[in-house]
Design a protein that fits this description.
The chain is mostly helical and 121 residues long. It contains four helices and four strands. Strand 1 and strand 2 form a beta hairpin.
Length: 121
C-alpha cells in the first residue's frame, strides 16, 4: 500500500482510532498489543508441551521412512508423503518411535486413515 494512502479505521470492532496505511495488521497501538497477547495465550493453550514430532530426531526418522518406503503402503499407487502412527500415539514419546506402528502413506490415504481412527474412538 502506498505511504500516501489515507489512514484507515482500526480493525478492532468499535474502535474509533485511525491507523496509518503503513502499519501492518491494521490495528491501532492499543489493539495490536491486545491481539498479540491473545495470540500468545492461545498458542500456549494449544501447544503440546513435549511433542516428539517437533524434534530433529523425528524429522530424521520421518525422512528415513519415506526414503525406504517411497510408495503408499495402503493403495500401492501414489508416492508416500506422510508417516502415519497406526492407532494414534504420535504425541506419546514411548509410541512415537515404534517402527512397527509407523506406515508411509500418500496424503489421501492418510486422510482416510485419520478419519477411520476418529470414527473408532
Amino acid at each position: 500500500m502506498s505511504p500516501w494512502a489515507p489512514a484507515r479505521a482500526c480493525r478492532a470492532p468499535l474502535c474509533p482510532n485511525r491507523v496509518p496505511s503503513t502499519v501492518k495488521g491494521g490495528y491501532c497501538p492499543v489493539h495490536s498489543k491486545q491481539k498479540g497477547a491473545a495470540a500468545a495465550a492461545y498458542n500456549r493453550e494449544k501447544r503440546v508441551p513435549h511433542d516428539p514430532r517437533n524434534t530433529a530426531r523425528w524429522q530424521r526418522w520421518r525422512a528415513q521412512i519415506l526414503r525406504e518406503r517411497p510408495v503408499c503402503e495402503r493403495c500401492n499407487d501414489a508416492l508416500s508423503t506422510t508417516v502415519h502412527h497406526q492407532g494414534g500415539g504420535g504425541t506419546d514419546p514411548a509410541l512415537c518411535f515404534d517402527l512397527s506402528r509407523l506406515v508411509a502413506l500418500c496424503s489421501s490415504c492418510h486422510a482416510k486413515a485419520e478419519a477411520e481412527e476418529r470414527k473408532s474412538v
